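Reply to thread "Modeling small-molecule complexes from scratch"

Following up on the discussion above, here's a worked example others can learn from. I took a protein sequence and the SMILES for 2-oxoglutaric acid and predicted the complex. Inputs first:
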Amino acid sequence: MSTPINKLLLTDLASSVNHVPSNYIRPVSDRPNLVDVVHVAEGSIPLIDLQGLHGPNHSDIITQIGLACQQDGFFQVKNHGVPETNISDMLRIAREFFRLPESERLKNYSDDPSKTTRLSTSFNVRTEKVANWRDFLRLHCHPLQDFVHEWPINPPSFRKVVAEYCTSTRRLALRLLEAMSESLGLESNYIDKQLGKHGQHMAINYYPPCPEPELTYGLPGHTDVNLITILLQDDVPGLQVLRNGKWISVNPISNTFIVNVGDQMQVLSNDRYKSVLHRAVVNRDKERISIPTFYCPSPDAVIGPAAGLVDEDHPAVYRNFAYQEFYEKFWNRGLATESCFDMFMASSTQSTVDPVS
Ligand SMILES: O=C(O)CCC(=O)C(=O)O
């Protein structure tokens, strides 16, 4: 079957191909190597029960979070306070959105990463050489009233459902940031205070079934640019996390979230916490939906290692920078390199901003 070339979105191309089109095929040295992936029935990453975080289990939960951030960079949470109906409604509306007719979906299309609401494909089609087997709707969500009017109006309940979901996940993010501050030995509101007006973005990732999943990625190995990510995935496996040089598959557990340390948390913690490489692989028979909430500083916030975590034995690993600078570098490199820390090392450039206290 010949490949239709005039489709902007993968969703409208994937069902008509028997083979992965050449622009999605990775070089042999950069393929998922699915046979080498480690599948652990349970416990691929720590599962932390947040019940009693503000009660009797406080110090135990803080210790668990701190250990997970140091050792794995990833953990799962249950009893997280986000109502199950918010979760199921969010997954339902995401599915409904990607099933809308092409002409309806395309109303939201843009390949400009600076747009605050946009439907797009792959990662950054303007800069990348090989495409990824993914479409995504990306939304800025905080402050809600600044962005909600830009969001899709179809399906008709989209804005209501997504706004409720964003509000609940923001509450969870703030609780986690407090806990992480404490786990680093900082004041519980330390991180909150570093984030300026705060930012919250969200992606709704749609990975169509793929005829040759061994040749391509949904997303290749990368770290997240933001502070922490709270990921919701449907029941189709696809997320893999790098541990000791091996890719570990993270099996979905319903009504839990996966939380990971992002690049800004690594910087702020002066390398105590690790922003770990992860990737999404695709499935031959099944579509997959994942919904990361990216909690971040506002663009003008100055990020750098916390003064309380810098001393003679632990010199500042990174220079201070405005979050906007890091964010732009992240999008412009098109996932061609796995992270962009090298441009922000304390030794690489003279700091242009005062130390963060
Ligand atoms: O689909 C997933 O499980 C991972 C998504 C992800 O890493 C991302 O959107 O940055």
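What I'd highlight from this example: Residues 350-357 have pLDDT under 50 and may be disordered. The pocket of 2-oxoglutaric acid is lined by residues 203, 205, 218-219, 224, 231, 233, 238-239, 278, 280, 290, 292 (CB under 6 Å). Questions welcome below.
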